[in-house]
Amino acid sequence: MSKLIFVKEQGLPEQRCAILPQNVKSYIRLGAKIAVESGIGASIFIEDQEYVDAGATVFSGEKSEMQLAFSDADAILSVAMLDETKLPLLNPDVTTISFFDPFKHNKRVNEYISHKVSSVSMEMIPRSSRCQKMDALSSQASLAGYVMALQAMSALNKSLPMMMTPAGTLKPAKVFVIGAGVAGLQAIATFKRMGANVIAYDTRPEVSQQVESLGAKFLNIDLGETGSTEQGYAKALTSEQLAKQQSAQATCIADSDIVVTTAQLFGRTPPVLIKNDVLSQMKPGSVVVDMAAQDGGNVEASVANQTIMYGGIKIIGTGDWASQVGRDASQMYANNLQALIEDIWSEEDKCLKVDEQDEVLAQALITHKGQLINPIIKSQYSAKEDLPKQTLHEQSKEHA
Ligand code: NAD
């Protein structure tokens, strides 16, 4: 029987948690033992007792209790990567499952290798039909799109829908959404429900139909060949294409009351799409929300984790969007985790089976048995000549 541990999130303002009481019941039906850290659901008003009633045991955050709970754990699950203080408590061969952003966290990858910890990155779950139930990037991005639209609306000093009243006619707000992936499409849908006029742009032309099916207009910019990766992600534009995009969308930006940018490039720094000269052309009182602010930004002037004024323009770069609707975000994330565990659960042995040959784990497992095994992360690190030492050692053995 496998023991799964769920820890409380550390970083503020995180409002999400990785398990709800209903998931405890499902895991127990599967044959797992569940332990949760005390206070895990406190940010969304779920008490420890509800987890206990569902069949979990609860351990406190005291070092000795935590140590005991971790001592026979098969997997440790959370929303964000485990904080530093928990590293010495990890058993060799335990599996951590969380968002992890292994592109950025080279040091942590090295630590997992030297501790012989297996790590699953929820960002690396394949974006295939089979994996839709486990796709936490999509579930959280969708809520992020909704929250960004809400934040933009409440920051704007005008209403969104057209209103014809005896006191005069109010024109609908104009919104421009750049990047129409999961988050962008949800933002568009939310703005449309509120009656705004919405225009959107994405470098993947196939997205135009999805934008139009939501009642928004697609801004056509001919950038030539843009292309997508095998997983359906956008490829980086050339510098000429980027300059062309920046100039072609400038009028639309200047004319908008709200601009939301959601353009991402998987595993790479997001492109800067709105430079300060274009921002300066927006009407005072307009609002810009930059989803990418924490990773460098789609908007030149945005600041990570902050809302700032750039002249008369409010730029929101606060991040942690899905966490703002923590109850729903936790439910969706916890269900994504449960779907993953069910997928890799061995019915026969009634335990978790962490097999690097498994179709999902072949892509989502980063470190395993003291090695960096993920091909994408491996190639990324070798390109940066930053490959963890043991793997370099393994490579030199392979080449010997
Ligand atoms: P993402 O977060 O990586 O990027 C967001 C959007 O930014 C994308 O639509 C991308 O095309 C766009 N973008 C990148 N550079 C841009 C630029 N210069 N200007 C404007 N837009 C730019 O993407 P995502 O939302 O996670 O989704 C990526 C892809 O994965 C999509 O094709 C989506 O349909 C697909 N997907 C598939 C599944 C599935 O099959 N289960 C699930 C989720 C997503």
Give a quick rundown of the structure.
With 400 residues, the chain is an alpha/beta fold.
Please tell me how large the radius of gyration is: 23 Å
Beta strand count: 19
Give the averaged pLDDT, no decimals: 93
Per DSSP, what share of the residues sits in E-state strands of 2 or more residues? 15-25%
Ligand identities: nicotinamide-adenine-dinucleotide
Count up the helices.
14
The main sheet orders its strands as 3-2-1-4-5-6-18-19
Q: What is the helical fraction, as a range of percent?
A: 25-40%
Note poorly predicted spans.
Answer: 387-400
What overall geometry do the principal axes of the alpha carbons give? globular
**What's the story with the biggest beta sheet?**
8 strands, mixed
Structural class: alpha/beta
What is the terminal-to-terminal distance? 41 Å
Explain this structure.
With 400 residues, this protein is an alpha/beta fold. 34% of the residues lie in helices and 17% in strands. The chain has helices spanning 21-30, 48-54, 63-71, 106-115, 136-155, 182-193, 208-213, 239-248, 250-254, 276-279, 326-343, 361-364, 375-383, 389-399, and strands spanning 3-6, 33-37, 57-59, 75-77, 95-98, 118-121, 163-165, 168-170, 174-178, 197-201, 217-218, 258-261, 287-290, 307-310, 313-316, 345-346, 351-352, 365-368, 371-372. Helix 1 runs parallel beside helix 11 (326-343). The two termini are 41 Å apart. The model is unreliable at 387-400 (pLDDT under 50). Bound molecules: nicotinamide-adenine-dinucleotide. Residues 127-129, 132, 135, 137-138, 141, 178-184, 201-204, 207, 232-234, 237, 245, 262-266, 271, 273 line the site of nicotinamide-adenine-dinucleotide.
